[in-house]
Amino acid sequence: MSELETLERTLLADIDAAGDEGSIEAVRIGALGKKGSISELLKTLGTMTPEERQTRGAQINALKTTVADAITARKSALKDLAIAERLARETVDISLPVRSSPAERGRIHPISQIVDEITAIFGDMGFSIAEGPDIETDYYNFTALNFPEGHPAREMHDTFFFNEDDKGERKVLRTHTSPVQIRTMEAQDPPIRIIIPGKTYRQDSDATHSPMFHQVEGLVVDKSANVANMRWVLEEFCKAFFEVDKVTMRFRPSFFPFTEPSFEVDIQCDRSGPIVKFGEGTDWMEILGCGMVHPNVLRSGGLDPDEYQGFAWGMGLDRIAMLKYGMPDLRDFFNADVRWMNHYGFRPLDMPTLFGGLSA
């Protein structure tokens, strides 16, 4: 067997044994590279006689062509093999359901949704949002709001009191969001148009009451505010919030220390089925309390009741959420049950708007 035949067999064996593109490239360089075995043979052609070059040159060039073709074929085969292995390794089972994104899986708590809905409604009417601290002084929570000494709301059975501080004062967890009314009147000149959503605290717990719950109230103060204005604002709110074309409301005389006159507001509804329907039916349901701001409260806020007057209203966010979305038990709002959230929660990117729908 000649030298060229031996070299050919060796190179072809190396080509067949190459298991990846890196190995076959090493074989190519070893045979056809600048200092490869076949390249070295081609360099010897210059030292041969014309007769030797004609014979030997043809044999070396034939070897070069055979090896180059074998390398090209092996490279193609290895490339196809690599693609096949990658496809097998990265295969996707298209029969499996698509995994939803975090934005799809996440849910907005109904209370957060209700606050956004109310903000959209009153924001369209020209109201702004006001906030205040959860821990209040007796003055802002009771005295400035015209609660007399000995009022039941000041007793331990209804209010969460803190221990006395160094000055002998006992702060409280606010029992309503009304202290923000006083703080706003102290800091802002009329006209005032605000809504106040926030947490409140009272010692009560059952299917429709919680020790910590949420309220929203509104305050309007200017020189011409009256009951007719208040009724229009509340009717427009209820129509937008419950997403009905009309509501029938009735105002019943009531008593609140901070308003005079004071009213309880009922909305006509249909309670014949499992869900309360507003804007129809012959039943009535209490929805909120309201009234004209008491002159003593205006004075506490630094305003002259002979020059300014106002109206205010308040309602429980948790309760109106239950009414609108058919939630049977208030305690579920605070249980952190993922199943409940998946059922009653809202998509995080669906922001409520008056033109697009509050709960769309």
Question: What are the SSEs and their pairings?
Answer:
Elements lengths: L2 H15 L3 H12 L4 H7 L6 H40 L12 H4 L4 H15 L3 E2 L5 E2 L1 H4 L30 E2 L5 H9 L4 E10 L10 E11 L4 H15 L7 E8 L2 E12 L6 E2 L4 E11 L1 H6 L8 E8 H9 L12 H7 L16
Parallel strand pairs: 1-4
Antiparallel strand pairs: 2-3, 4-5, 5-10, 6-7, 7-8, 7-9, 9-10
Cofactor: Mg(2+)
Keywords: Aminoacyl-tRNA synthetase, ATP-binding, Cytoplasm, Ligase, Magnesium, Metal-binding, Nucleotide-binding, Protein biosynthesis
Subcellular location: Cytoplasm
Report on the structure:
By secondary structure, the protein is of the alpha+beta class. It folds into 2 domains: 3-89; 107-344, Bira Bifunctional Protein, Domain 2 (BirA Bifunctional Protein, domain 2), CATH 3.30.930.10. 40% of the residues lie in helices and 19% in strands. The chain has 12 helices and 10 strands. It has helices at residues 3-17, 21-32, 37-43, 50-89, 102-105, 110-124, 138-141, 179-187, 227-241, 295-300, 317-325, 338-344; strands at residues 128-129, 135-136, 172-173, 192-201, 212-222, 249-256, 259-270, 277-278, 283-293, 309-316. The strands form 2 sheets. Strands 1, 4, 5, 6, 7, 8, 9 and 10 form an 8-stranded mixed sheet that branches. It has a two-stranded antiparallel sheet with strand order 2-3. α1 runs parallel beside α4 (50-89), α2 packs antiparallel against α4 (50-89) and α6 packs across α11. The relative contact order is 0.11. The mean pLDDT is 85.
Short account of what is shown:
With 360 residues, the protein is of the alpha+beta class. It contains 12 helices and 10 strands. The chain folds into 2 domains: 87 residues; 238 residues, BirA Bifunctional Protein, domain 2 (2-Layer Sandwich).
